[in-house]
Amino acid sequence: MSGFNKILAVVDPTEEQQKSLARALELANKCNGKVTAFLSIYDFSYDMTTMLSVEEREIMRQAVVDDRTEWLVQLIEQQPNAHDIHVDVKVVWHNRPYESIIVEAIAENYDLIVKGTQQHDTLKSVIFTPTDWHLLRKSPKSVLLVKDHAWPENGAIIGAVNVGSEDEAHISLNNRISATSLEMGGLLKGHVHLVNSYPGTPVNIAIEIPEFDPQTYNQSVKNHHEDNMRQHAEKSGIGAEFCHVKEGLPEDVIPAIAKQLDAELVVIGTVGRQGISAALIGNTAEHVIDMLDCDVLALKPEGFESPVKV
């Protein structure tokens, strides 16, 4: 039984190709799941029509919702793999799309949110919108950000783990990342790889402490990460030949390995930091995601509480 049986596909009316809907239907076909096509709409002018009563404005808004609902039903009927799947349709009026998505996901207890990324035609790169980042930071549910490409069999699925940490929360998240990667590997009939980066020798220590031996230090750190990776991989049932431990920053190492393997999907953990610490330090997962050229499945740690309340 898959862990992604109830899928919320976020529809973007500005896009010709509905990547999220197509991917959600494909995934539901593989795991016998259910899909809800979800559209959040808002037009500021409808709330500023002061000459109309509240009731009249509500009627106008409902007319727009009904029109978009009909469009969405027709859109689903055009999808080649939608006929064998139970697909619901939901259109809501909300001025903050990410909030409406998260509220719906929590209230209806979805397993997965699927959201399409936008392509910059000139730069040939993926653009992440504010809604994407809000979902990654604030959604307690797993978020799959998809590109417009196929999921061929025998592709590479990467689990980005942090085996150097002995923190229980990180260990738990590592286990979840590996388990989910294996699950996706089974669904996609792909090969699961684990990637872990470790920091190089701090330059300031090497300069300030003359007796400090950077080579010995670096080898010690490398051994620590390789030993932990071996133990984690054995526990997860992943062969050593599919494990990659590299020196460097995660935002450099993970995208490099993903490109080398031509990965279809990277599974990563996001802690969802908020406020000043996130602004100053940044979220490592977000830096990694920004550099990836494939689908990304972002998982939250156990016990994560969303700042968005239902």
List keywords for this structure.
310 residues, 11 helices, two-stranded antiparallel ribbon, 12 strands, alpha/beta, Rossmann fold, 2 domains, 10-stranded mixed sheet
Could you provide a short overview of the structure?
By secondary structure, the protein is an alpha/beta fold. The chain contains eleven helices and twelve strands. The chain has a ten-stranded mixed beta sheet, sandwiched between helices. Strands 5-6 form a two-stranded antiparallel sheet.
Cα gyration radius (Å): 22 Å
Sum up the overall morphology in one term: elongated
Order of the strands making up the biggest sheet: 3-2-1-4-7-12-11-8-9-10
How many strands, which pairing sense, and closed or not: the largest β-sheet? 10 strands, mixed
CATH topology (level 3) name of the largest domain: Rossmann fold
Structural class: alpha/beta
Low-confidence stretches: 276-282
- Helical fraction: 40-55%
N→C terminal distance: 28 Å
Count of separate DSSP helical elements: 11
Determine the strand fraction and express it as a percent band.
15-25%
- Kindly state the number of beta strands: 12
Q: What is the name of the CATH architecture of the largest domain?
A: 3-Layer(aba) Sandwich
Q: Give me the strand/helix succession.
A: EHEHHEHEEEHEEHEHHEHEHHE
The CATH class of the largest domain turns out to be: Alpha Beta
Mean pLDDT: 87
What is the total number of structural domains? 2
